[in-house]
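Hi everyone, sorry if this is the wrong subforum. Our group has a chain we'd like a structural model of before ordering constructs, and none of us has done structure prediction before. Sequence below.
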Amino acid sequence: MPACAGRPLSVPLCRSPAYIRQRYSSTSGLRCSATKEPGDNSDLPESIRQDMERYAQKAQQAATSTSKAAQREGAAGNGGIKEVIDKVLIADFFFVCLALVWLALGVGEQATLHSSRLLDVWFPLWQLVFQPAIGILMLGALVSGAIGRLQKDS
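Answer:
Right subforum, don't worry. Here is the predicted structure as tokens:
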């Protein structure tokens, strides 16, 4: 069997030995990937080469449009504020989710064990902690959306 840089070439297992000997008796049609130059697409069909060229052009266009968008954000000056607001909103969202899980566990404990230890701790924190966190989440979503729209319009 012909070898490619010391490795045997792969041969389909579903073929008979006679077919394999006839098909692979000459290595003229087989190309060794170890000796092939990087970027050599000569053995690919024309349609695939054209697709690869279109993909490279689109990737280049995307890179230039991304750099232009970054320049616009830097010129606007609001990019840093929006990033901070978004990070605070993400943290607040997970805090509110934690509070809801705590409430669900407390309700489950009340229903199954007839004990209200979790709810007794949760209820005093409702007005002091959880309601303001939900309000900050709503207000932050509105502010973040407004800043995003202003950046998009300018």
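For your construct planning: The first strand starts at residue 3 and ends at 4. The beta strands are 3-4, 7-8.
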